[in-house]
Design brief:
The complex is a heterodimer of chains A (115) and B (113). Chain A is mostly beta strands and 115 residues long. Helices cover 0% and strands 57% of the residues of chain A. Chain B has strands at 5-7, 10-13, 19-24, 31-37, 44-50, 53-56, 65-68, 75-79, 88-95, 103-104, 108-112. Classes of the chains: A mainly beta (115), B mainly beta (113). At the A-B interface, strand 6, strand 10 and strand 11 of A face strand 5, strand 9 and strand 10 of B.
């Protein structure tokens, strides 16, 4: 069955430090992959997506992610974290069907930023 | 451009009561989704509408949950009767078409006591 695993429930980084959030997926075909961010009391905002082509994808707010087919991974990175990046991050895979893309989400990683 | 609107933002009910949530998608978006997000988990799709027709409700507990999207615009999600395990955030999302980016509303946090 299709699934998304985010191994880290919580991550704490210092402001200005680099960040990597891990995501592994299970999907039979070439996946469509997404990273969303959710701030407290807010809905989910799309950070970036991968459909095909260049495996290094640039997103908003200085985030990037790299698709590695051999490792079934789509890890999110940021070279220098800002205090405003503290939020919960969700990785998702789209199951492509007759009526469009059905998103399957991981359980999320809560990012804490310490000053 | 106005985003996806949801109301109420918070709701507390007792088990066995009924509750309804409302969603107004982005203007012109044909596809509307309802997700359930239980604490500590990612969102799970409950139902997907294309215009005013249901295209996927495979994960909707139909014995207690119902949803409608009259006139292909606003949508309501109802739970009757509610159970303790229905405590969650209910997210509405919309997209221009079924392949498009999904835009999420702020959600309704339901607590069932």
């Amino acid at each position: 069955a299709q699934s998304v695993t985010q191994p880290d429930i919580h991550i704490t980084v210092s402001e200005g430090a680099s960040l990597e959030l891990r995501c592994n997926y299970s999907y039979g075909a070439t996946p469509y992959l997404f990273w969303y961010v959710q701030s407290p009391g807010q809905g989910l905002q799309l950070l970036l997506k991968y459909f095909s082509g260049d495996t290094l994808v640039q997103g908003i707010k200085g985030f990037e992610a790299e698709f590695k087919r051999s490792q079934s991974s789509f890890n999110l990175r940021k070279p220098s974290v800002h205090w405003s990046d503290a939020a919960e991050y969700f990785c998702a895979v789209a199951l492509r069907g007759e009526y469009g893309n059905k998103l399957v989400f991981g359980a999320g990683t809560i990012l804490r930023v310490k000053s | 451009e106005a985003g996806v609107a949801q109301s109420p933002r918070y709701k507390i009910i007792e088990k066995r009561q009924s509750v309804a949530f409302w969603c107004n998608p982005i203007s012109g978006h044909a596809t509307l989704y309802w997700y359930q997000q239980i604490l500590g988990q990612g969102p799970k799709l409950l139902i997907q509408f294309q215009n005013n027709g249901v295209v996927d409700d495979s994960q909707l507990p139909k014995d207690r949950f119902s949803a409608e999207r009259l006139k292909g615009v606003d949508s309501t999600l109802k739970i009757q009767p509610a159970k303790l395990e229905d405590s969650a955030v209910y997210l509405c999302a919309s997209s221009l078409g079924s392949q498009g980016e999904q835009y999420f509303g702020p959600g309704t946090r339901l607590t069932v006591t």
